[in-house]
Specification:
Elements (H helix, E strand, L loop, with lengths): L3 E9 L5 E10 L4 E5 L6 H9 L6 E6 L2 E5 L2 E2 L7 E4 L11 H11 L4 H14 L15 H13 L5 E5 L9 H16 L3 E4 L3 H7 L2 E6 L2 E6 L1 H6 L4 H8 L2 E8 L2 E4 L11 E3 L8 E7 L4 E5 L9 E11 L2 E8 L2 E8 L10 E6 L2 E4 L2 H4 L6
Parallel strand pairs: 3-9, 3-10, 7-8, 8-9, 14-21
Antiparallel strand pairs: 1-2, 1-4, 4-5, 5-6, 10-11, 12-13, 12-15, 15-21, 16-20, 17-18, 17-20, 18-19
Helix pairs in contact: 2-3, 2-4, 3-4
The chain binds adenosine-5'-triphosphate.
Adenosine-5'-triphosphate binds next to helix 1.
Length: 368
């Protein structure tokens, strides 16, 4: 339940690759943060540096008031008092569930009666008390992962570090464990850092989402802010599957390079300053911010017109693909919206568009 402070942190791998660059991050006691980013963005490097498996090349890490790395100080992973859960159910196969979960308390020299009480309580919390005498080989993947979680939490660590801890599980088990994890960490007031490549999971679980790209933090914000105020086109494209449109910004208007696209000025949710003029920009538009309408007899001449090329019914509505001369958009239509058929020509309206002066960023977007 400690505050974690990472200051000016850098990690350079032996081959010279810069895994972490200029990481500054404060995680408050009891806060649940998710680290998300494309493959190779540095999520695992950051978590492992925090855990003490990697020594930072520069900067410092504090757990609570204790300096654990930096300024010629180095505290080994075992002495950082952190709970950890990895993707592959890292429980000891030769020990029973009870023995696995009691291990951190034995190391801290708890009395046998206290161990029994704590282990039983945490196994009840994760719904595994009835299995405490079993060996992990007799458990399902989800059950083993719950044992790993119980073991990571039992000794009330300073913080819980999760590296793709739910990723190997199938839905709906994964969804259930996700809810359990959130409830337990809140009840215990556990500071939690959760690495995931799953963007929906990152947004659903976190108090705060840290988006990484190429070893750097590119946005540090609440889930709502990440979606409604992406810091740049990379975040918009990566986190929202937004379409990226090249163009220029002149006198407060975005002019897409593709002349078939029309973006109404009142759709602009973020934009460069009005005085900045004649510069190259990119606009991003998320699938849920596009509305499709049937083409009417009195269609304004500047309407963007596209052709529907795929229609997919999903749980919360319909996913469509619409192409126009220059490219394609993904569109999410909510339940009750007009749903066209494949090959229909439709009017495309952009309800919310972000314009950024950062065209270089979009080239970095690689989906995990
Ligand atoms: N031992 C190593 N030596 C050199 N470079 C490494 C080493 N381990 C990782 N890297 C590089 O550091 C960068 C960050 O890797 P990291 O594993 O932290 O990414 P990640 O965001 O966790 O990716 P993924 O989602 O694929 O697990 C990548 O470019 C990776 O190739």
């Amino acid at each position: 339940m400690a505050k974690l402070t990472l200051s000016d942190l850098e990690h350079v791998y032996p081959n010279g690759h810069r895994g972490l660059i200029d990481i500054n991050l404060q995680i408050q006691p009891g806060e649940f943060i998710t680290l998300v980013g494309p493959s190779g963005s540095g999520k695992t490097t950051l978590l492992r540096t925090l855990a003490g498996f990697f020594q930072p090349s520069a900067g410092s890490i504090n757990i609570g008031d204790t300096l654990v790395a930096g300024d010629k100080t180095w505290v080994s992973p075992e002495r950082r008092d952190l709970g950890m859960v990895f993707q592959e159910h890292a429980v000891w196969p030769h020990m029973t569930v009870f023995q696995n979960v009691s291990y951190p308390l034995k190391r801290k020299r708890f009395a046998a009666a206290d161990i029994a009480q704590h282990v039983t309580a945490v196994l009840e919390d994760v719904g595994m008390a009835e299995h405490m005498k079993k060996k992990p080989t007799a458990l399902s993947g989800g059950q083993r992962q719950r044992v790993a979680l119980a073991r990571a939490m039992v000794a009330q660590p300073q913080a819980l570090l999760l590296d793709e801890a739910l990723s190997a599980l199938d839905e709906p088990l994964r969804a259930r464990l996700r809810q359990q994890l959130r409830r337990l960490t809140m009840e215990e007031g556990l500071t939690t850092v959760h690495v995931t490549h799953d963007r929906s999971e990152a947004l659903a679980l976190a108090d705060r989402v840290i988006v990484l790209n190429r070893g750097r933090i590119v946005q540090d914000a609440s889930p709502a802010e990440i979606l409604t105020k992406p810091a740049n086109s990379f975040v918009a494209a990566f986190m929202s599957d937004a379409a990226v449109l090249q163009g220029s910004w002149t006198n407060g208007t975005f002019y897409p390079d593709d002349k078939g696209l029309y973006i109404q000025p009142d759709a602009l949710a973020s934009q460069p300053q009005r005085e900045i003029t004649g510069v190259r920009c990119v606009a991003t538009v998320a699938p849920e911010d596009i509305r499709l309408e049937t083409i009417g007899a009195h269609q304004p001449a500047d309407t963007t017109v596209g052709t529907v090329t795929s229609v997919l019914a999903v749980r919360f509505g319909t996913e469509l693909t619409v192409t126009w001369s220059g490219g394609e958009f993904e569109v999410y239509a909510p339940v009750g919206a007009m749903i066209p058929k494949i090959s229909d020509r439709v009017a495309v309206h952009f309800d919310r568009v972000h314009v950024f002066q950062d065209s270089a960023m979009t080239t970095h977007a690689v989906h995990a």
